[in-house]
């Protein structure tokens, strides 16, 4: 009898230990402890898409709404851990594994597909031009000839200015972010700023004295969720999530809340024609 | 009771043949074309030849140890017969049933494949008048020479086979850089392949090429 008591006690302890993970205690955020954390690369200063309030540390914007929606609505659910990433560092941050996902006005391009994967597109826009209010010198794309135009370094916008029909015609200058280009435009150091039209509208809405021309050019900028190259299962999961995001009305709701009365047409991708995962 | 010698030999020969047969069936189910089918079946034929040869050698050794010894055939005869049977069966299968594949990549000449935009169509004639084999396997590839644009990754192809001037049903929503197989059966004179390109961005311009093309049975 004396030998059985320690054995029974040991069995009880073992059973208790085994039951622990089955009923995990909720974390302070109320989410299950079993939900995986995922580092999501995001922007901090892109009005309408991703803005970080430095005082309250709150983030808002269409990109923010998207990755939060994906975190709650794709299986398995995940806990997004926001990592601030600069525009020129996006590909490297993902390729080096510092972030597992990028939702950061990240245009899908065939060239980038060589290094990383994409799911999407979730938003479509095109190159736009912003000038100072009252400046009537630029009315067509040809009017850019001889002008100095600022764009973000490491972006497709900068490449579109330096290739195609505008190659060699425009004097280009680059900054690490569109905010710096806007500042230079206001200081009259450049004639225009160029990046994705939807981003320019956000800056013009936020900053008096600027206007976005009804003028677009170049190839479409089709924003995708950046993913590690070769992870087909993850790509298919996120693609399916984006499809549901668009078809169930969430896309329209978040577009209106972030861009106001900007027309949906030309910005909403066809959910049944998202890019296939290679 | 002692088992006859051939029963003991079946203990390894039957599992070996069953295993190889299963492996060959699996290979065939992978969807190989002519060359792959021939390789897979050759494996089975070769294994069967080896088994026959070894059983022959064993039989020869048993006969040698029997009470009333009869002059056995030399071992090399069994080996030679096995090899010959395997070789003849393999050659018959290869040349008369399967026929070797015909790589025609270098003979494919694509018309209108340069700088294609959304909605444009390219085409190529299947080499041979008529083509030497029943099926065509080819891989269409798109190249975006610009550093911008989601063109290749978003593109879809519609492929139509035209046999002697008659169009088959269009195969839609095909992806570039993936293999496409067409049945050329019934082509009396000429087969032509039409490839229409669909890209969501009208500003995209890409080049279409065929990186691999093989005729096979």
Features:
heterodimer, A: 278 residues, alpha/beta, D-Maltodextrin-Binding Protein, domain 2, 2 domains, 5-stranded mixed beta sheet, 3-stranded parallel beta sheet, 11 strands, 26% strand, B: 217 residues, alpha+beta, Jelly Rolls, 5-stranded antiparallel beta sheet
Describe the structure.
The complex is a heterodimer of chains A (278) and B (217). Chain A is an alpha/beta fold and 278 residues long. Chain A folds into two domains: 36-124 and 221-273, Periplasmic binding protein-like II (D-Maltodextrin-Binding Protein, domain 2); 126-220, D-Maltodextrin-Binding Protein, domain 2 (3-Layer(aba) Sandwich), CATH 3.40.190. In chain A, 31% of the residues lie in helices and 26% in strands. Chain A contains eight helices and eleven strands. Chain A has helices at residues 4-19, 62-73, 90-95, 156-161, 178-186, 197-206, 232-247, 250-259, and strands at 36-42, 45-46, 50-52, 59-60, 78-84, 101-102, 117-132, 148-152, 171-175, 192-196, 210-227. Chain A starts with a helix and ends in a 19-residue tail after the last helix. Chain B has 217 residues and is an alpha+beta fold. In chain B, 37% of the residues lie in helices and 24% in strands. In chain B, the strands form two sheets. In chain B, strands 2, 4, 5, 6 and 8 form a five-stranded antiparallel β-sheet that branches. Chain B has a four-stranded antiparallel β-sheet with strand order 1-9-3-7, with no helix packed on it. In chain B, helix 1 runs antiparallel to helix 2 and helix 2 packs antiparallel against helix 3 (75-98). The two termini of chain B are 53 Å apart. The mean pLDDT of chain B is 84. The A-B interface holds A 107-111, 113, 118, 121, 156, 159-160, 163-164, 218-220, 222, 224, 269-270, 273, 275-276, 278 and B 144, 146-154, 175, 200-201, 203-204.
């Amino acid at each position: 009898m004396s030998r059985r008591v320690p054995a029974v006690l040991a069995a009880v302890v073992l059973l208790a230990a085994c039951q622990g993970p089955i009923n995990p205690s909720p974390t302070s955020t109320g989410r299950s402890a079993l939900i995986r954390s995922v580092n999501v690369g995001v922007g901090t200063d892109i009005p309408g898409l991703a803005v970080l309030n430095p005082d309250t540390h709150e983030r808002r914007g269409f990109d923010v709404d998207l990755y939060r929606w994906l975190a709650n609505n794709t299986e398995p659910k995940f806990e997004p851990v926001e990592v601030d990433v600069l525009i020129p560092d996006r590909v490297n941050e993902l390729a080096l594994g510092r972030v597992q996902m990028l939702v950061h006005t990240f245009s899908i391009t065939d060239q980038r597909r060589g290094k990383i994967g994409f799911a999407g597109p979730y938003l479509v826009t095109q190159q736009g031009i912003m000038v100072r209010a009252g400046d009537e010198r630029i009315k067509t794309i040809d009017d850019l000839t001889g002008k100095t135009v600022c764009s973000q370094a490491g972006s497709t916008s900068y490449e579109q200015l330096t290739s195609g029909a505008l190659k060699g015609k425009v004097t280009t200058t680059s900054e690490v972010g569109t905010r710096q280009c806007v500042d230079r435009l206001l200081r009259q150091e450049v004639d225009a700023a160029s990046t994705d039209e939807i981003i320019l509208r956000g800056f013009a809405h936020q900053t008096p004295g600027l206007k976005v021309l009804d003028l677009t050019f170049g190839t479409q900028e089709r924003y995708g969720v950046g993913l590690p190259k070769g992870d087909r299962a993850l790509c298919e999961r996120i693609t399916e999530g984006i499809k549901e995001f668009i078809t169930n009305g969430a896309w329209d709701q978040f577009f209106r809340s972030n861009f106001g009365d900007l027309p949906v047409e030309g910005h909403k991708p066809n959910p049944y024609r998202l890019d296939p995962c290679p | 009771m002692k088992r006859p010698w051939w029963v003991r030999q079946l203990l390894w020969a039957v599992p070996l043949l069953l295993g190889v047969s299963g492996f060959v069936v699996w290979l065939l189910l992978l969807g190989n074309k002519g060359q792959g089918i021939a390789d897979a079946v050759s494996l089975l034929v070769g294994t069967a030849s080896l088994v026959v040869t070894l059983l022959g050698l064993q039989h020869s050794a048993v006969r040698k140890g029997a009470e009333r010894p009869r002059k056995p055939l030399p071992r090399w005869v069994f080996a030679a017969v096995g090899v010959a049977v395997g070789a003849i069966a393999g050659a018959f299968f290869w040349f008369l049933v399967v026929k070797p594949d015909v790589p025609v990549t270098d003979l494919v000449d694509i018309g209108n494949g340069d700088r294609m935009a959304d909605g444009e169509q390219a085409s190529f004639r299947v080499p041979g008048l008529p083509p030497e084999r029943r099926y065509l396997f080819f891989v269409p590839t798109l190249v975006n020479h610009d550093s911008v644009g989601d063109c290749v990754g978003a593109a879809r192809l519609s492929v139509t086979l035209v046999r002697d001037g008659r169009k088959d049903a269009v195969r839609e929503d095909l992806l570039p850089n993936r293999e496409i197989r067409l049945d050329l059966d019934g082509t009396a004179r000429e087969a032509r392949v039409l490839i229409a390109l669909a890209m969501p961005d009208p500003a995209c311009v890409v080049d279409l090429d065929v990186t691999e093309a093989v005729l096979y049975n």
